[in-house]
């Protein structure tokens, strides 16, 4: 982001043209990572330079056991924020009895009533900015984890009036910023769920994109940093979703019937914003950023200690997804050879030795041998190797080269091989 800042402050070049190109051409997740689009804002010091009068917050209150905490957060919202509470009739009555949000005009919407929801969508469309929060629990195994998840959402989206003003100021100062969400919930059961690929949901995401005419480059293999259907946004960035007719579309109805619409949408928001010409990022309080950094450090140290060092991995670039059937494959053969004597090959050698697998030697492609011995075992070119029935080959190369060599082996009738990295 420093380069863009330099362009803005020291040149006459139109910064917006750069953003237009990046948003159109880049994966939105890569853009967030490379440009460090993480906004750590104060909830104690006002940084905003102007007031905003076209802001709406929708609080979806589903679970009754933490209503008081939710209302305490809602009560801290700036006066300029129009408030709507979406709940069922039972929770709405509970809120009206508590009278905690005194002095604030707000709209109550029964989320079980489709007509009221459609009216709410129209109301949202008339505002410039929107915040969505909820108290819906996720499948966490203990009370402490649920409370941590609740704090992650509410503290990083509507901590207090100063923090909300600072969020709105970030939008005002960054006209191409369209969407902000809290950091991923790396806690308890959500540790693995907050990373990885889209999996089966990717097809549902594509259905939504096609049904509302989105032009975005969602990648099945790339994790989306948006989770939980909680966020701040510029309403223009999510304009395609603010049409009530969408939710009468066969695709939306079908996904609602399968109970996967929310799961698909929560991953799509940054892509929808991208299709409208905006980038996305993550927002958190300064205090939470400090806690998050400490949590990252703790988790990384445990991963390094208990997993990476056990695999003889000394550098992050060598973190690989190893074939789960590798050891069983090696045990099936009397002789194991590693195809590839480079960095990956040496890592594979250590990995196998630590698990009691004897490696006879390295194999390299013809013309690629530079040493006769590497790490104490011989190196042979492919044409020098005598293929025997009791011989298994591990392709100790990166994924791309493993596939190329695998194709060559297949063409030569050699099928007793397995990839080290998948």
Describe this structure as you would to a colleague.
This protein is an alpha/beta fold. The chain is 41% helix and 16% strand. It is built from 15 helices and 14 strands. It has helices at 2-10, 15-25, 28-34, 67-74, 89-98, 114-125, 143-158, 161-173, 201-211, 250-257, 261-275, 286-308, 326-331, 343-353, 399-411; strands at residues 38-41, 55-60, 81-87, 106-110, 129-134, 177-181, 231-234, 279-285, 335-339, 361-364, 373-374, 377-381, 391-395, 417-419. An 8-stranded mixed sheet has the order 1-8-6-7-5-2-3-4, with helices on both faces. Helix 4 (67-74) links the parallel strand 2 (55-60) and strand 3 (81-87). Helix 9 packs across helix 11. The longest helix has 23 residues, at 286-308. The chain is elongated and about 80 Å long. It starts with a helix and ends with a strand. The mean pLDDT is 85.
What keywords describe this structure?
41% helix, six-stranded mixed β-sheet, 422 residues
Short summary:
This protein has helices spanning 2-10, 15-25, 28-34, 67-74, 89-98, 114-125, 143-158, 161-173, 201-211, 250-257, 261-275, 286-308, 326-331, 343-353, 399-411, and strands at residues 38-41, 55-60, 81-87, 106-110, 129-134, 177-181, 231-234, 279-285, 335-339, 361-364, 373-374, 377-381, 391-395, 417-419.
Secondary structure blueprint with pairings:
Elements: H1 2-10, H2 15-25, H3 28-34, E1 38-41, E2 55-60, H4 67-74, E3 81-87, H5 89-98, E4 106-110, H6 114-125, E5 129-134, H7 143-158, H8 161-173, E6 177-181, H9 201-211, E7 231-234, H10 250-257, H11 261-275, E8 279-285, H12 286-308, H13 326-331, E9 335-339, H14 343-353, E10 361-364, E11 373-374, E12 377-381, E13 391-395, H15 399-411, E14 417-419
Parallel strand pairs: 1-8, 2-3, 2-5, 3-4, 6-8, 9-10, 9-13, 10-12, 13-14
Antiparallel strand pairs: 5-7, 6-7, 11-12
Helix pairs in contact: 9-11
